[in-house]
Amino acid sequence: MSGPQCCSNPPTLDPSTGSGHVEKFGGLDTYVTGSPDSKLAILLASDIFGYDAPNLRKLADKVAAAGFFVVVPDFFYGDPFVPGDDGSYANLPTWLKDHGPDKAFEESKPVLEVLKSKGVSAVGAAGFCYGAKVVVELSKHDFIQAAVLCHPSFVTLDDIKAVKIPISILGAEIDNMSPPEVVKQFEEALTAKSEIECHVKIFPKVAHGWTVRYNVEDEAAVKAAEEAHQDLLEWFLNHVK
Q: So what's the pLDDT on residue 4?
C-alpha cells in the first residue's frame, strides 16, 4: 500500500453525480437529496475525499428513498484531501491541520440548526472514516438521535465511552485505523452501558473504506458495501422516527 489505509482507493470526484443537488445549508455547500418536507433527516459526514464522491452520493440517494431528507455538507470548503502528484500521502498531516474533525464538528451544528428550523423532528448521522470522528462528537450530546460509524478513523475508546445515543459501528476485518480488536473494545464499552442501544459488526474480508470507496465493477465489493448500507438504513429506520 502506497499510503495510509485511510487514503486507499481514492474516489474519482464528480460534482454532477447523484439525483439531489447542492445548495448552501447552514453556511456550507451541501449535497441535499430527498423530500424537504420530511420530518426525519440524516446527515452524512464524508471521508477526507469529500462530498463529491459518487458512491457517497449514491448512498445518500438510497437513504433519501427510504423517506429521509439527507444532507452531505462540504466541511472542506471545496478543498478535499488530494494525494501528491506521485500518489504519496505525505501532505495528509498538513491537510488535517487545516481540516480537523473538531472544526467539522463545530460546523455541523449550524447545519443541524437549519434542519430543526425547517421542522425536522429527528436527525440521525453517519460518518465514514474521518467523518466518523465528527459523528462520534455529535453523539456525546443531544444534537442527534442516532449514529452510525463506518470504518472509523481517529475515534478513541474515550470517545465511545462518552456516547449518549443509540449507535451502530460497522468495522472492517482489514483496517489499521480501527482494527477488529479495537472495534471489539468499543463494543465492550457500549454493552457495559445498558442504557445505550448499540450494534457492532465486523465485516469479513473487507478493508477500511469499503462502504464508500468500493469498485462498482467488483461484485463482491459491491455486495459487502450494500450489506453495510442496509444495516445503516435499518438502524436509522429503527431509531430516527
A: 63
